[in-house]
Design goal:
Helix content: 40-55%
Mean pLDDT: 86
Number of helices: 16
Oligomer: single chain
Strand content: 5-15%
Number of strands: 6
Shape: rod-shaped
Length: about 475
């Protein structure tokens, strides 16, 4: 019979070797748990950011987590619950499967999941929303699209139209005319300009169908106190730079409807006009826009008429005839100017009719670009037939509208644009409680996980739809 023996030395050696092996295994397990913590955190953040509002992306090219989740009430705690659920699911991938307990070696449980920092789309006057809108335009059109808008604004300011006060100049001529004894009860040109508001009314209403919608502004972004988040976190560019302002103007033209560009949005037909004027009805916004565009066209056309020798000679010839009839040569010079003002006014009314038909009008006209080429046509300017084909060159209604918006207060534009988005989104199924200050596009989260043998891991990571500086 043979007997096996083992020395004390070998026993001690095996103990040390086994301890080393078990230590290496446990160390590997700990490292794997740390790696899994990183992985499940990343998967959890990506999962909640995959829950963006589909309607918002479809209609406005915006990627935002709507924290209402269709419930009608925005709550950041709901997003935290979603994050916790996704991390827990990925922490035990073998749960429910036949794994003979092997998955328990790497199993982890979520103890806590909190969003410590997050940015609402409405933060800092809507700068988060604006930043996404700018990137959407860059992706769709390219940054070069901003140059066209910038050039229009530059041309407008260099033309002197914005500082040309037609009413003041005309008033000076009228005063001079009234100081001349014409042997008549009333200055004839007074009747034309006394009817000026009425002419504009007929321009707006005659032959033009205007929406009568009332805007539901009671609980929109610019009419309520907004929730506050962290604002724009480590942006890769300044959303308020001149270039980005022009890109945002292009976004408005792309995504918002107007009188000429009807996108069939149910809550508001003239969205660009609302962003420009802020009135609570489509009709009021349209009317205000027409007056602003008319002011530009009247100034530009009057400047062009006064610079045109041919038109001045026609007006002077007519003024000379009137002076001969009245036996008063003193009237020739002021009456010539008054007739030129009348010509500029009549031409601008025709311009507006062409713009509202979808035609184009150059900012500053030259002789051959005038629709009223003869003084005789000025008398009949309201009855002159016009169509879209009458204006083939220059800026269209939308171009003029964006030019006006480009000179408006940037914050006001962004807030009113968010009003429009909220009104439209609330008409869609499952979005009745939609609000821009309930939508986030950046989040920083702290998560605590535990594993067997008392291991606890705490991790903080962030995620964003938009590029951020690390």
């Amino acid at each position: 019979m043979r007997r096996g023996t083992i020395t004390v030395f070998l026993s001690l050696t095996l103990t040390i070797v086994l301890s080393l092996i078990l230590t290496v295994v446990e160390s590997a397990r700990y490292s794997a748990l740390r790696m899994r913590t990183e992985m499940v955190m990343q998967m959890g953040l990506m999962s909640i950011f995959a829950e963006y509002n589909r309607e918002l992306l479809k209609d406005y090219d915006l990627l935002l987590i709507d924290t209402t989740y269709g419930t009608g009430s925005a709550d950041i705690a709901a997003t935290e619950d979603h994050l916790k659920k996704y991390i827990q699911y990925n922490s035990r991938p073998g749960k429910g499967l036949l794994s003979f307990g092997l998955d328990e070696m790497m199993a982890m449980d979520v103890k806590d999941a909190k969003l410590t920092l997050y940015s609402y789309a409405s933060d800092q006057g809507g700068r988060e929303f604006k930043r996404q809108a700018i990137h959407a335009v860059k992706d769709h059109f390219g940054a070069g699209i901003a140059k066209k808008i910038g050039d229009s604004v530059k041309d407008y300011k260099q033309s002197g139209v914005d500082s040309y006060d037609v009413d003041r100049k005309r008033a000076a001529v009228e005063k001079k005319l009234r100081g001349i004894d014409l042997n008549v009860d009333k200055c004839p040109v007074d009747e034309v300009f006394d009817e000026r508001p009425g002419i504009i009314e007929r321009l707006v209403s005659n032959g033009i169908t205007v929406s009568d919608k009332h805007l539901k502004l009671d609980n929109t972004a610019s009419h309520r106190k907004l929730r506050q988040g962290a604002g724009v976190v480590r942006p890769d560019s300044d959303p308020d730079s001149i270039l980005n302002e022009r890109l945002f103007d292009q976004y408005l033209r792309w995504k918002m409807s107007s009188y000429i560009n009807d996108l069939h949005h149910s809550s508001c037909s003239y969205e660009l006009e609302y962003i420009l004027n802020g009135k609570n009805t489509d009709k009021a916004n349209f009317r205000e826009t027409v007056f602003k565009l008319f002011t530009i066209r009247e100034a530009a056309d009057t400047m062009a008429v006064f610079k045109d020798p041919g038109k001045e000679s026609q007006c002077k010839a007519l003024a000379t005839v009137v002076a001969a009839i009245l036996l008063n040569p003193e009237i020739i010079e002021p009456l010539t100017k008054m007739l030129l003002f009348t010509w500029g006014f009549a031409e601008s009314v025709v311009d507006m009719r062409i713009l509202l038909k979808g035609g184009r009008i150059p900012l500053m006209k030259k002789g051959e670009e005038f629709r009223l080429s003869h003084i005789g046509q000025v008398v009949l300017f309201l009855s002159l037939p016009v169509s879209k084909a009458d204006g083939r060159n220059g800026l269209d209604y939308g171009d003029y509208l964006i030019m006006l918006l480009a000179m408006e207060n940037g914050r006001k534009k962004v807030m009113r644009a968010m009003d429009v988005i909220e009104m439209n989104m609330r008409t869609k199924e499952g979005n009745r409680g939609f609000r821009m200050d309930g939508c986030i596009d950046y989040a920083e989260a702290d998560v605590t996980l535990s594993a067997k043998k008392g291991y606890t891991f705490t991790i903080r990571r962030d995620y964003s739809y938009e590029p951020i500086i690390e």
